[in-house]
Amino acid sequence: MSAADSRVIAWFEIPSTDFDRAVRFYETVLGNPMRREDFGQPIALFTYGEQATGGCVVGGTSLKPSAAGTMVYLNATPDVNTVLARVEKAGGRVEGPAIQLPGDIGYIAFIADTEGNRIGLHSQHNG
Fold first, then answer.
1. Residues with Cβ within 8 Å of residue 100, at least 6 apart in sequence
2. Rounded to 10 degrees, what is the CA torsion of 25, 30, 31, 33?
3. DSSP string for residues in the chain
4. Which pLDDT score, from 0 to 100, does residue 9 have?
5. pLDDT tens for the 127 residues of the chain, in order
6. Which residues contact 126 (CB under 8 A, 6 or more apart)?
7. Domain coordinates of the chain in residue numbers?
């Protein structure tokens, strides 16, 4: 890996069984619209900066939602508790309170989305 591109993650996909429901969930919880595309299967892209790692919700795929697979942590801006407050209203489940990480790393929390995926949230702030 070169110093010019030291990202470990280049892209991620969160599977859905009900694509529209999943997209509405993430748009509501994160407070940002997602851009929908179709590459032979529907995808909805998370908003990200040019240099940031990107990802999407994907529908019509052989990937299956899971609570026991790879953990993806989404940016919980402006703070973890603000984002957590939107989860249940959007149809998801909060899996405990925010946890402060050591060394000024910030806060994390865990949720289950409408599809059954376990997702992590991260923010420098707790609200």
1. 106, 107, 126
2. -70
3. --GGG--S--EEEEE-SSHHHHHHHHHHHHT---EEEESSSEEEEPP--TTS-EEEEE-SSS----SSS---EEE--S-HHHHHHHHGGGT-EE-S--EEETTTTEEEEEEE-TTS-EEEEEES---
4. 79
5. 444 555 677 889 999 999 999 999 999 999 999 999 998 899 999 988 777 788 999 998 788 999 998 899 999 989 999 999 999 999 999 999 999 999 989 999 999 999 999 999 999 999 8
6. 79, 80, 81, 98, 100, 107
7. 9-123
| Helix-helix angle 80-87:19-30, to 10 degrees | 140
Asked if 121 and 109 count as a contact pair (C-beta separation under 8 A), the reply is yes
Q: What is the pLDDT of residue 7?
A: 63
**Which CATH architecture does the domain made up of 9-123 adopt?**
Roll (3.10)
pLDDT of residue 100: 95
